[in-house]
Design goal:
Layout (H helix, E strand, L loop, with lengths): L26 H8 L19 H27 L30 H31 L8 H29 L8 H32 L3 H6 L27 H24 L15 E2 L7 E2 L18 E5 L5 E4 H6 L3 E8 L5 E10 H8 L6 E6 L8 E5 H5 L4 E6 L2 E2 L9 E3 L12 E7 L2
Parallel strand pairs: 3-12
Antiparallel strand pairs: 1-2, 3-4, 5-6, 6-9, 7-8, 7-12, 9-10, 9-11
Protein name: Molybdopterin-dependent oxidoreductase
Keywords: Membrane, Transmembrane, Transmembrane helix
GO molecular function, one term: oxidoreductase activity
Amino acid sequence: MATDNPSQPSRETSHRPVPSSQDGFPAGLWRWLARRNPPGPFQARAWRSPLRGPWLTSVFGLVLLIVLPVVIVSGLLSYAAYAPRFGQGNPVDVGWLRLPYFDWPTRPSWLYRLTQGLHVGLGLMLIPIVLAKLWSVVPKLFAWPPARSAAQLLERLSLVLLVGGILFEIATGVLNIQYDYLFGFSFYTAHFYGAWVFIGAFVTHVAFKLPHLIRALRSRSLRSELRTRLADTRPERPDPYGLVAPDPAPPTMSRRGALALVGGGAVLVGILTAGQTLGGVTRRFALLLPRGRDLGDGPNDFQINRTATAANINPASTAADWSLRLLGGPRPVTLTRTQLAAMTQHTATLPIACVEGWSSTQTWGGVRLRDLAQLAGVPHPASAKVMSLEKSGSFNQATLQSNQILHPDSLLALQVNQADLSLDHGYPARVIVPALPGVHNTKWVRSIEFRAT
């Protein structure tokens, strides 16, 4: 971006009109505050880039207006995929913010891979655009006096929620992707409520600013700006919002250069992250891989988000005397791994996708969950509670919906890629269900309780 150079004094302390008492505050109070500008960023001469103005700000704003709803909706859908009606959405009790309950689909099998991939991937790609948008409006954020009327005071408070909300969501989201359980608070709870704070501020901001955005975009031709060289770059006309510098410095970059820089940054982030969701040959370019970098060996060579050691799995509990308990029917049924392996086996090629955005497609082999439900004496289950050998942790159990149990590709997997599961991938047995969030594909299964109601 063009440099903000405060070294040369401004010919004006401000190019904003001095209001009268009709603006809501007495004119005398306004003049008294205006004469007492704090130093540094509150001075108009601190912001001298000739690129700033309503048009450039509105270009960045238009991109955010188009893409942010996709990030928001995909995030809310991913929350719904956890089936909060079973008490396993995080947070659970959200009051009037509760989303309508519905059965999360099992088709297509890559649905959760898509929603969470979009949420994380687009969210990361928006970071350069968000930062550019904040750069373009920074003089307004430091406007002095901060408010001239009660209405303007409310507007500025909404900006605090808007800017603070999106920065909080970006910061917590990026840290959660890269680090395992870094926070001293629940990431899921904070991210959920932070999202709603931002959504409210975003909708309010759009309602007030959409006419200004449309007017500003019409003030200049995008095609013309993309053809304008650095030598021909001129500041926008003075505006009532305080974005155009009153004493602009010579440009060091054209507007097309600024758009290329920001757009190129977003594309680069996309290239460095998309492989974690798309997989295949693109994965080698995913240098910004999330946590879950641990890999297994041979046929089990794919991402492990939580190892058996991290889950405190006692190797003795997975030894030859391990058995699976099927509950919920007339009487409990106990099956050894040998007995499970002797049952009719099925294979399914399914992706496993996690909240951090990574996913991986493997071929799984095992016993259909609906066959186990039949064996347990609950042929038409309404739900099933799967319990892990893991003693603690947020995801040592999961409740499955009826459609997830009865889907022909829903398995209690014993093998992956024609080899036994490794301990880190859930040996002796794990659940794998189409379109289910990765953490609910429970590993180290010890029991399944099928429920008729």
